[in-house]
Amino acid sequence: MIKKASEINETTPWQEMTLGGEIYEGGTSALFNTGDWRTMIPVYHPENCKHCMLCVPYCPDSSIPVVEGKREDFDFMHCKGCGICAKVCPFKAISLEKVGA
Ligand code: SF4
Ligand code: SF4
Fold first, then answer.
1. How many A from CA of 90 to the centre of ligand 2?
2. Mean per-residue pLDDT, 46-62
3. How distant, in Å, are the alpha carbons of 10, 41, 68, 81, 85 from that of 99?
Protein backbone atom coordinates (compact mmCIF):
# COMPACT_ATOMS: atom_id res chain seq x y z
CA MET A 1 0.00 0.00 0.00
CA ILE A 2 1.37 3.45 -0.93
CA LYS A 3 1.58 5.80 2.05
CA LYS A 4 0.64 9.45 1.74
CA ALA A 5 3.30 12.01 2.64
CA SER A 6 1.28 13.05 5.70
CA GLU A 7 1.41 9.45 7.00
CA ILE A 8 5.20 9.16 6.82
CA ASN A 9 7.24 10.07 9.89
CA GLU A 10 10.45 9.09 11.63
CA THR A 11 8.90 5.83 12.91
CA THR A 12 7.80 4.62 9.46
CA PRO A 13 9.69 1.39 8.64
CA TRP A 14 11.39 1.13 5.25
CA GLN A 15 9.08 -1.76 4.32
CA GLU A 16 6.18 0.69 4.21
CA MET A 17 8.00 3.26 2.06
CA THR A 18 7.76 3.48 -1.71
CA LEU A 19 10.80 2.64 -3.81
CA GLY A 20 13.22 5.55 -3.46
CA GLY A 21 10.85 7.24 -0.99
CA GLU A 22 8.83 8.65 -3.88
CA ILE A 23 5.77 10.78 -3.08
CA TYR A 24 2.85 10.52 -5.47
CA GLU A 25 0.55 13.35 -4.42
CA GLY A 26 1.16 17.05 -4.94
CA GLY A 27 1.35 20.06 -2.59
CA THR A 28 3.32 18.27 0.13
CA SER A 29 6.21 20.67 0.72
CA ALA A 30 4.21 22.48 3.43
CA LEU A 31 4.53 19.30 5.52
CA PHE A 32 8.31 19.31 5.62
CA ASN A 33 10.98 21.53 7.12
CA THR A 34 12.94 21.66 3.88
CA GLY A 35 14.88 24.63 5.24
CA ASP A 36 16.92 22.35 7.49
CA TRP A 37 19.05 21.37 4.47
CA ARG A 38 20.55 24.87 4.45
CA THR A 39 24.30 25.47 4.64
CA MET A 40 23.96 29.22 3.96
CA ILE A 41 21.38 31.55 5.51
CA PRO A 42 20.07 34.94 4.34
CA VAL A 43 20.16 37.68 6.96
CA TYR A 44 17.65 40.53 6.66
CA HIS A 45 18.81 44.09 7.38
CA PRO A 46 15.51 45.98 7.74
CA GLU A 47 17.28 49.33 8.17
CA ASN A 48 18.34 49.13 4.51
CA CYS A 49 15.10 47.70 3.10
CA LYS A 50 13.02 49.99 0.86
CA HIS A 51 10.20 47.42 0.50
CA CYS A 52 10.62 47.47 -3.27
CA MET A 53 9.57 43.75 -3.30
CA LEU A 54 12.12 42.81 -5.92
CA CYS A 55 13.36 39.90 -3.81
CA VAL A 56 9.90 38.38 -3.27
CA PRO A 57 9.11 36.94 -6.73
CA TYR A 58 12.70 35.77 -7.20
CA CYS A 59 12.63 33.48 -4.18
CA PRO A 60 12.11 29.94 -5.52
CA ASP A 61 10.74 28.76 -2.17
CA SER A 62 8.23 31.56 -1.46
CA SER A 63 10.14 32.23 1.75
CA ILE A 64 9.86 36.01 1.87
CA PRO A 65 6.55 36.92 3.52
CA VAL A 66 4.78 40.17 2.64
CA VAL A 67 2.26 41.65 5.06
CA GLU A 68 0.30 44.76 4.12
CA GLY A 69 2.72 45.71 1.37
CA LYS A 70 5.86 45.33 3.49
CA ARG A 71 8.27 42.45 3.48
CA GLU A 72 8.95 40.69 6.76
CA ASP A 73 11.79 38.48 7.95
CA PHE A 74 12.36 35.17 6.17
CA ASP A 75 10.32 32.00 6.54
CA PHE A 76 13.15 29.71 7.53
CA MET A 77 10.95 26.61 7.40
CA HIS A 78 11.45 26.47 3.63
CA CYS A 79 14.31 28.85 2.72
CA LYS A 80 17.15 26.75 1.28
CA GLY A 81 19.79 29.47 1.41
CA CYS A 82 20.27 29.76 -2.35
CA GLY A 83 21.19 33.46 -2.03
CA ILE A 84 19.13 34.69 -4.99
CA CYS A 85 17.37 37.25 -2.76
CA ALA A 86 20.71 38.68 -1.60
CA LYS A 87 21.89 38.89 -5.21
CA VAL A 88 18.82 40.77 -6.48
CA CYS A 89 18.41 43.21 -3.59
CA PRO A 90 19.65 46.61 -4.86
CA PHE A 91 19.89 48.10 -1.35
CA LYS A 92 22.11 45.62 0.53
CA ALA A 93 19.21 44.70 2.79
CA ILE A 94 20.09 41.00 2.62
CA SER A 95 23.43 39.32 3.22
CA LEU A 96 24.24 35.64 2.97
CA GLU A 97 26.13 33.94 5.77
CA LYS A 98 27.23 30.43 6.67
CA VAL A 99 24.82 28.58 8.97
CA GLY A 100 26.24 28.60 12.49
CA ALA A 101 29.01 31.09 11.62
S1 SF4 B 1 18.06 32.39 0.18
FE2 SF4 B 1 16.90 31.61 -1.62
S3 SF4 B 1 15.28 30.36 -0.71
FE4 SF4 B 1 16.07 31.64 0.94
S5 SF4 B 1 14.77 33.44 0.98
FE6 SF4 B 1 16.53 33.92 -0.34
S7 SF4 B 1 15.86 33.41 -2.42
FE8 SF4 B 1 14.44 32.41 -0.99
S1 SF4 C 1 14.86 43.58 -2.63
FE2 SF4 C 1 15.89 44.36 -0.81
S3 SF4 C 1 15.03 46.42 -0.50
FE4 SF4 C 1 13.64 45.32 -1.88
S5 SF4 C 1 12.11 44.39 -0.50
FE6 SF4 C 1 13.71 42.87 -0.81
S7 SF4 C 1 15.10 43.18 0.93
FE8 SF4 C 1 13.83 45.01 0.78
1. 7
2. 96
3. 24, 6, 30, 9, 16
CB atoms within 10 A of CB 44: 19
9-34 confidence digits (pLDDT tens): 889 898 888 888 888 888 887 788 88
**pTM, to two decimals:** 0.80
DSSP annotation of 64 reads S
Distance CA 1, CA 7 (A): 12
* Substitution candidate for ligand 1 out of 78, 80, 95, 97 with most atoms within 8 A of CB: 80
